Amino acid sequence: MTKINTPKKKILIAAYAISPYSGSEFGVGWNFVSKLSAFYDITVLYGTSGVCMGNHEAMLQYRQNNPDDGVNYVYVEPNRLVRLFDWMNRSITPLFFSFSYMLWQRQVLATARKMQANENYSLVHQLNTIGFRHPGFLWKLDLPFVWGPVGGSSNLNDIFFPILGKGNFLRHKLRNWTNSYFLQYSARVKNAAMAAKAIFSATSADRDNLQHFLHVDCQIIRENSLLNLRETIKPTGAEVQFVWAGRIDELKALNLVLSALAHLSGRQDWRLHVIGDGPCKAVLQAQSTALKLDERIIWHGQVPREQVLDIMREADVHVMPSMMDSNPTVLLEAFEMGLPSIALDQFGARDLITAETGFKVTLNTVEGIIEQMADHMAFCLNNHAALDHMKTNVLQRQAELHWDVTIRQVRDIYEKVTHE
C-alpha cells in the first residue's frame, strides 16, 4: 500500500527579532520558529537579528551556512522613517521604540498582503515582540490570527519604589500608568484581541490581565522552555554554593541578596557566586565589604554562557530576587542545571517554582523580603538532605518545562484554529 505524504500546512509568522546566536526576544523568535518548522511550512517575517532595527547580519550569516533548513526567512527592511524613529529610540529615549515598531509592523502587513496573494497560508501568528502593547496588524488579514506569547502587562510592585533611584522610579511609574492605559483604552490592542482566534500568555498574571481587561480566553505558554536536561543531582557539600546571575543593575536587586546573607550570623558554611557585570557592581561590592561578606563571595564578572552553566552546574541553590522579570532565561537555566531557586513570588517565578522545587518569597515589605530570603538560605544550610531531595524534584519537573511540551501546546492551537 502506497503511503500518501500530506503536505505541511503553510504558516506565516511575524517575529520582529530572531537569531540562533542570541537570547531574549531573539531566542524567543528562533526557538519557536525552528522547532515549529519540523511540523509546518514556515515563512517568518523579521526585522532584526542584531543590536538595532534593520541589523540582520546574524541571520544573513546563518542563512549562508544553512541554506536548506526548511524555513523561508523574509527580511522586512525598515524604511527611512522607521529608521529615524529607531535612531531616536537609541539616541534620545526608548519611548520612540513604539513609533518605530508600529510603523515597521505596517510594513509587515503590506508585505504579508503581497505574499498572501500567491500563497495558501493556513494561519498567521504574531509571535514577538511579546509585549501586549504591540500586537502588530496581521489580524487584518483574511486568515485565522494567533497571538502569543503575550506578556508585559504586569506592573512593578509598589513596595519597591521607595528603594529605586530617580531614573527607575520615574520610568516604572510611567510604565505602570501606561500599562493600565493600554489595557483599558488601546484600540490596537482591543482590535487584535477581538480578531484573534487564539491568544496565549507568557505568565498567569498576563493571562489574568488579558481576561479581566480584554475579556478574552487564553492559556499560558511561556516564551522560553528547557532544552538540555540534567540527569543526576550534585549532592550538597559542607559548604552550600549559592549562585546569582544577571546584569548587575538596580532592578535585579542583588543588594537584597547581600542584605539577606548578612542575617546569617557570621556563618562560614556558604559561598555566593555572582555572575555578571553592570552599573551597580562597584556599589554592591562596597556593600559586601561593609557587611563583611567579601570572603564568602566570588565575583566572576561577565563570562561566556558555557562558563555560566559550568558555574551553575556546581552550585546548590539559585537566588533570583529580580523586581521585574517575566520568565527570565536564568531561572530556566537553573532548572536545566537541577537547581532549586529562591525567587520573588511574582511573574514567571510564581508559575515555574513549586513548593517542591524552590522557595517563593512573599511580597510584603522590602524588610520582609530580606528576612524571608535569609530564612530560606538558613534552611538550605541546615538541611542538606532536604535540599538534595528538592534538587531531585527539580529534575522530575524538567520534563514538564521542556520545549517539546511547549511546541505541542502551540501545535494544538494551530490545529484547533485551522479546523474551526
Automatic annotation (TrEMBL):
SUPFAM superfamilies: UDP-Glycosyltransferase/glycogen phosphorylase. It comes from the Bacteria. This is Glycosyltransferase family 4 protein. Pfam families: Glycos_transf_1. Coiled coil: none annotated. InterPro entries: Glyco_trans_1 (IPR001296), Glycosyltransferase_grp1 (IPR050194). It comes from Janthinobacterium kumbetense. Residues 239-375 form the Glycosyl transferase family domain.
